[in-house]
Specification:
single chain, alpha/beta, 5-stranded parallel beta sheet, 43% helix, binds 4'-phosphopantetheine
């Protein structure tokens, strides 16, 4: 009898919205883990209000990974390590795009280890074609009418367009009131 213990990892983030850079990191994780939980944080780190609600961020993430049976998308609130331990995941995946990401990521990894000594944070670098992509820049470019179709998957693109079209028509309505 074998003692097969599946490798379960959690890839947490704000995913506001999920980009092709995030997707790349998730797909790389599937090379060495059996099951991946993409964990959409209800409240993003930097106390700003998220652009998309947690329900929208989760829905988009689910749509992007619809064809991948080893990926499950969930939302979480509270401490990441508590969530990870509740789903039996000892590995936390984070993407490192540039040296500038390192300080914040290092602090988080250390803090998470303080909170739960058994957890390991694994850093993955995305393909260089994704290295400059961030959800913040995607939102900014999209809000100014720029083409972000290379940086997000079709469902996300559609949702961004719909959201900015709604914002535009609301400001038109106010201007003409
Ligand atoms: O995509 P982000 O915003 O960089 O993701 C950050 C996230 C959500 C992974 C981080 O803020 C987090 O883990 N939040 C949960 C709260 C928590 O556990 N904080 C202590 C970890 S240092």
């Amino acid at each position: 009898m074998t003692n097969f213990r599946p490798i379960v990892a959690v890839y947490p983030g704000s995913f506001d919205p999920i980009t092709t850079g995030h997707e790349d990191v998730a797909r790389r994780t599937l090379r060495f883990c059996d099951r991946l939980l993409i964990a959409v944080a209800e409240s993003p780190t930097h106390s700003r209000r998220p652009f998309f609600s947690v329900a929208e961020r989760l829905e988009l993430t689910e749509q992007v990974f619809a064809g991948e049976p080893r990926v499950e998308c969930v939302s979480f609130s509270g401490l990441l390590v508590e969530f990870a331990s509740s789903v039996g995941a000892r590995f936390i995946i984070r993407g490192l795009r540039a040296v500038s990401d390192f300080e914040y990521e290092f602090q988080m990894a250390q803090m998470n280890r303080e909170l739960w000594e058994d957890v390991e944070t694994i850093f993955l670098t995305p393909d260089e074609e994704h290295a400059f992509i961030s959800a913040t820049l995607v939102r900014q470019v999209a809000s100014l009418g720029g083409d972000v179709s290379r940086f997000v998957s079709p469902p996300v693109l559609k949702r961004l367009k719909a959201r900015f079209a709604a914002v535009e028509s609301e400001s038109d309505r106010r201007r003409h009131k």
